Amino acid sequence: MVKVVFLIMSGDQKMNLALRMAAASVANRRFEDLKIIFFGPSQEKLLNLEGQAREDFDYLLKNGAVDKMVKPCPLGRGCTTTWVSR
Fold first, then answer.
1. CB under 8 Å to 82, separation ≥6 — which residues?
2. Both ends of the chain: CA-CA distance in Å?
3. In this structure, what are the phi and psi dihedrals at residue 76, rounded to the nearest 5 degrees?
4. For residues 15-53, b (16+ Cβ closer than 10 Å) or e, as one string?
5. Residue 83 and residue 70: Cα distance in Å, rounded?
6. d(CA 63, CA 57)
7. Of 11, 39, 44, 65, whose CB count within 10 A is highest?
């Protein structure tokens, strides 16, 4: 089996597709180990996920696939929300 890392940097529709693909891969046990790292715009989008993307993220988090969530509000962006780990 193969170990896989998803590096999600996009904060647009591509992020939703990556979450869907990762969740399906975990559910179907396509890989021995799958980890996800969020970086850049995807960190901010995490704070506003809705619908299927939110369900996929929750599933991945519950199943230990979310490895890193770098600070979601980069300095200088004026963001006041902070990420709270579950």
1. 72, 73
2. 29
3. 90, -5
4. bbebbeebbebbeeeebeebbbebeebbbbbbeebeeeb
5. 9
6. 10
7. 65
Half-sphere exposure at residue 9, Cβ-oriented, CA atoms within 13 angstroms = 2
Domain count for the chain, please give it: 1
Average pLDDT over residues 49-72: 86
Domain that holds residue 43: 3-69
Query: What's the token pair of residue 44?
Result: 């901010």
User: Does 27 reside within a domain?
Assistant: yes
The structure's pTM equals: 0.76
**For 17-54, what is each residue's pLDDT tens digit?**
999 999 999 999 999 999 999 888 888 888 889 999 99
